[in-house]
Amino acid sequence: MSDRVIKIFDTTLRDGEQSPGASMNIAEKLEIAQVLADLGVDIIEAGFPIASPGDFEAVHQISKQVRGATICGLARCNEQDIDRAWEALRPAERSRIHVFLATSAIHREFKLKMDKDEIVRRAVAGVKRAASYTPDVEFSPEDAARTEVDFLCTVVEAAINAGATTVNIPDTVGYATPAHMAKVIRTLRERVANIDRAVISIHCHNDLGLAVANSLAAVEEGAGQIECTINGIGERAGNCSLEEVVMALRTRHDYYKCDTKINTTRLVPASRLVSNVTGLLVQRNKAIVGRNAFAHEAGIHQDGMLKERTTYEIMNPEDVGWSKTDLVLGKHSGRAALGDRVRALGYQLTPDQLNTLFDQFKALADKKKEVYDADLVALIEQGGRDEQEVWQIEKYRLTCLTDEVPSVRLTLRRGQEVRTVDVNAGDGPFDALFWAIEQSTGVNVVCRDFNVHSLTVGKEAQGEVTVEIEHNGQLYRGRGVSTDSIEAAAKAFLNAINRVAATLGRPADRVSPHNI
Ligand code: KIV
Ligand code: ZN
What we know:
Blueprint: E1 4-5, E2 7-10, H1 26-39, E3 43-47, H2 53-65, E4 70-76, H3 79-89, E5 95-102, H4 105-112, H5 116-131, E6 137-142, H6 149-162, E7 166-171, H7 178-191, E8 199-204, H8 211-220, E9 225-228, H9 242-251, H10 253-256, E10 258-259, H11 267-278, H12 299-307, H13 335-344, H14 351-367, H15 373-388, E11 392-399, E12 407-414, E13 417-424, H16 429-441, E14 446-454, E15 463-471, E16 474-482, H17 485-503
Parallel strand pairs: 1-10, 2-3, 2-9, 3-4, 4-5, 5-6, 6-7, 7-8, 8-9
Antiparallel strand pairs: 11-12, 12-13, 14-15, 15-16
Helix pairs in contact: 1-2, 1-11, 2-3, 5-6, 6-7, 7-8, 8-9, 11-15, 16-17
The structure holds 3-methyl-2-oxobutanoic acid (KIV) and zinc ion (ZN).
């Protein structure tokens, strides 16, 4: 029997965007969608079009511009949601409507106040309406893992009869364990008469840290699609991590006998992009894409590695997109060396982008003698971001003396508009600059989190600052990089303020699939 090919359904732009503070603008979503298509994902869940005009536009633009993957839009089982999803998806090369309705007793009783018959009736009506637009319809019984299994079988069978071609089994609250999930999928396959007419999909949240394990257990029982996100981002503790589940299937092909269409050498660049765009840092020890994932510290391990790599490595770092060496560039390195390095790091830049990067690289090499891969990645990622920033820092002067309140003169630019403010406030340089940025932009926020760390090694290393701010009850993240950590902090804070500014004027009551 030939190997099964498991479909990878990426929901970074929908469930991933539901991570607190991870909202993305349309340009960022388009960039990520293109990277996902290049990575080889089968289906991109681009958003929830009814949620807000911004969500609609993102799904619509991705449908227009991104080729190679099926584009999917989420909808509740009601006519307005489904019609809006179809409107957004219409230009796509291949489109899928994903309709969902909660089925567990808790959701039926407390959230929906519907009985079982009403749930089945609405699910069938939703699937039929979606199927009137596209033959590719996915149905999700939300909170399936906590749904009575008999009722789950009834709903799934009815949804397939109504035209669902994929039935997704969400563990919405991350409650399942691998044996539990395996049993649910096995039961569906044994008891749902028409199950062979649909692909079984699995959608696991990570509240108990079991999302990848549960997804793999479902695959063992016959699931043919895995729903996942880059870096595992998503509601609360996140979703099944794409890079982990894909590499588990690949590395343990001997056991699972399954393939995916993912080009695994694109995993690390995709992870970096999502981290940069969302401001959600990847923990160092994160499997596959964390900075330490292939670092060997113990002497015995290093010794083993030198003798034979496979003594302590089950995967080849290059197979997931880590470059072979952290080659150091300096101010005498030329354009060709830089271009080679950029390609080795997995980026495809246009000649114009490479020229701009070269100038930035020279400026950085003047400030710090050795430019490492992490510095280059920061320049590439930050470069693209800077162009999209609404407000940019023109210049600032900051004075801090012991026992005196700091003073700042800050000039910001927004297109042709230039604003300068003088501020004497704050209990330190960062605080003073943040005050000045708030004064200048007129956006007042509460700073919830602030982290500084160095990107590489040595005294001259670039500082990376991440901030999390709160505005009108919503969290926004920002990131900035510079050889000067104060400038990095100002950039990070302004980056977060720009995200707030981009949402001002949008309806505040954005609908989330889980707050209905
Ligand atoms: O976790 C969940 O139940 C979901 C559904 C909308 C599929 O994200
Ligand atoms: Zn989910």
